[in-house]
Specification:
Layout: H1 2-11, E1 43-57, E2 62-76, E3 82-88, E4 94-99, E5 107-108, E6 115-122, E7 129-136, H2 140-218
Antiparallel strand pairs: 1-2, 1-7, 2-3, 3-4, 5-6, 6-7
């Protein structure tokens, strides 16, 4: 008897498990959509490759891993400046973030065709630091592609800097010419004013002479 009652209790469905009360519960907190910005909205990706990044620790005299993820060359749509940006795959934490300058160069890491090294003034940690980076790719082809793009960007930045310097020199030269012309105009105006004042001073001197001579003639 007890066994039968125990079996009935086990077979009996739990109250409310399959019942639909029809009640609608409103969310306690209403979440609004928030626009997420990455800082890359005004840039175009020139290159995008999977890789693993290392930095050289001077204190420990050894290479330390910065993270595995995607490395990009990003060109700004307005300024034309190009920066290297790398984020970790899962956390999206920034591993490297610096401009590609005309003076920079990249070279193959000794004894490894899949790796290359370069120096940079990096801003990944929120402040500029001199870093020696080493990056490793899954294939030799990807490493070569990275190095070629790196050098092309550095050379293009050099050409843009030279063009900007030439333009700036031209503007300075034009300003110098304009300033010289303005100075000459001012000088001409000052000479004209001096010339106009001379006859007036001569007339005054004649009048004075007459006033001095008149008493003598009347005597």
């Amino acid at each position: 008897m007890a066994d039968a009652e125990h079996r009935e209790e086990e077979e009996a469905p739990a109250v409310g498990d399959d019942e639909d009360t029809g009640a609608q519960v409103a969310p306690i907190v209403k979440l609004e959509e928030v626009a997420v910005t990455t800082g890359e909205e005004d840039e175009d990706a020139i290159l995008d490759l999977k890789s693993k990044l290392y930095r050289f620790d001077k204190d420990g005299n050894q290479w330390k891993e910065r993270g595995a993820g995607t490395v990009k060359f990003l060109k700004h749509k307005s300024t034309g400046k190009v920066r290297l940006l790398m984020r970790q795959s899962k956390t999206l934490k920034i591993c490297a973030n610096h401009l590609i300058l005309p003076t920079m160069s990249v070279q193959e890491h000794a004894g490894n065709e899949k790796s290359c090294v370069w120096h940079a003034r990096d801003f990944a940690d929120g402040e500029l630091k001199d870093e020696l980076f080493c990056i490793r790719f899954p294939s030799i082809e990807n490493c070569k592609s990275f190095m070629e793009t790196f050098q092309e960007v550095a050379e293009s930045q050099k050409a843009e800097d030279e063009q900007e310097s030439s333009t700036a020199a031209g503007l300075i030269e034009n300003l110098s010419v304009e300033e010289k012309a303005d100075a000459e105009k001012k000088e001409d105006k000052s000479e004209d004013k001096t010339g106009e004042q001379e006859p007036a001073s001569g007339k005054d001197s004649k009048d004075k002479d007459k006033k001095v001579d008149e008493p003598a003639s009347s005597a």
